Amino acid sequence: MASLSKNRTLQILNAAAAGNYGVLAAIAYNIEQLTALVRAAHSRRSPLIIQLFPSTLRQLPTLAHAAAHAVSTATVPISLHIDHAQDFDHIREILTTLPVDSIMVDMSHYDQAENLSKTRTLARECHAHGIAVEAESGRIEGGEDGIADTECLEALLTTPEDVEAFIAADIDILAPSIGNVHGDYGPAGPKEGQLHFEKLEQIGRQVDGRVSIALHGTNDFPEEVMKRCIRSGAVKLNVNKLLLEVWNEHYRRNAAGTPLVRLIEDGMGVLQRETERWMDVCGSSGKA
Predict the structure, then answer these.
(1) What is the pLDDT of residue 110?
(2) How far is residue 175's CA from residue 250's CA, in Å, rounded to a whole number?
(3) Looking at the predicted structure, is the pLDDT value of residue 146 above 90?
């Protein structure tokens, strides 16, 4: 079995836990977004986890290789993570064909026993290739690109028993369900009391450094909510719309009247600045 001691994702997360800050795990859908994210990491001297959905790997097969090149040539700690991989065969294909650092093996659309069984099998296979494993304990409500299989299933909050069961399945990163949702909360962000910060804190005390904690479902988060989640123990902060909405809005407003090259360059600038802002919020700026 390959050693995980030099695994880039785990090195990034272990440093964040030791330093009491959070690291953005940012979704990219194309080369322009990837470029803006990496530029932000270098500008802020911040660690970064680049995330790709399995659907993106199929749509743009060369993007993972571009991301891997960005990782290997970066002057700050960057890693490549595949988010919400739900298909056994595709996960096994990724293991043997793509230079990734970590994979979320998302079996949360199965019942608890089968989720654990499949997660344990996949964790063993990933570790044999030196790839770190993330899994979802309980079930996070909602759906977005890449995780449609869970969209109509009831949310299940993570229990202490879930935590121990998934750690026993030999995962490296735990994504708990604490009232967070995949998808949108609305312009005001999560409702009062929707996120169970005390549960997140309890999970942090329970894992006691045995695994890292990932926070999913950050769309529409105000800055203070993100900071509180970090204080409560989350170190891997999955972000999608939280960063990319400024990119989307830039294209909605300017696509019709701006030359393509300028539209792309300006869009990368908009996304870079937004990413830098959230790196500041999460406390990772200057930590590389």
Answers:
(1) 84
(2) 31
(3) no
Cα–Cα separations (whole angstroms), residue 140 to 14, 80, 183, 215, 217:
24, 23, 10, 10, 8
How crowded is residue 1: how many other Cβ atoms within 10 Å of its Cβ? 8
**CA dist., res. 104 & res. 280, Å (int):** 26
Assign 3-class secondary structure to the chain: CCCCCCCHHHHHHHHHHHHCCCEEEEECCCHHHHHHHHHHHHHHCCCEEEEECHHHHHHCCCHHHHHHHHHHHCCCCEEEEEEEECCHHHHHHHHHHCCCCEEEECCCCCCHHHHHHHHHHHHHHHHHCCCEEEEEECECEECCCCCHHHCCCCCECCCHHHHHHHHHCCCCEEEECCCCEECCCCCCCCCCCCCCHHHHHHHHHHHCCCCEEEECCCCCCCHHHHHHHHHCCCCEEEECHHHHHHHHHHHHHHCCCCCHHHHHHHHHHHHHHHHHHHHHHHCCCCCC
Distances (CA, A) of 58 to 108, 129, 159: 22, 21, 35
Q: What is the pLDDT of residues 272-286, one digit of tens each?
A: 999 999 999 999 999
Q: Which residues are catalytic?
A: 83
Angle, in degrees to the nearest 10, between helices 31-44 and 63-73:
10
pLDDT band at 153 (very low <50, low <70, confident <90, very high): very low
Which domains are delineated in the chain? 8-282 (3.20.20.70)
Q: How many CB atoms lie within 10 A of CB 95?
A: 18
* C-alpha closest to that of 71 among 91, 92, 51, 96: 51
Could you report how far apart the first and last alpha carbons of the chain are, in Å? 29
Q: Of 102-111, 179-188, 203-212, 262-271, give the lowest mean pLDDT range.
A: 179-188
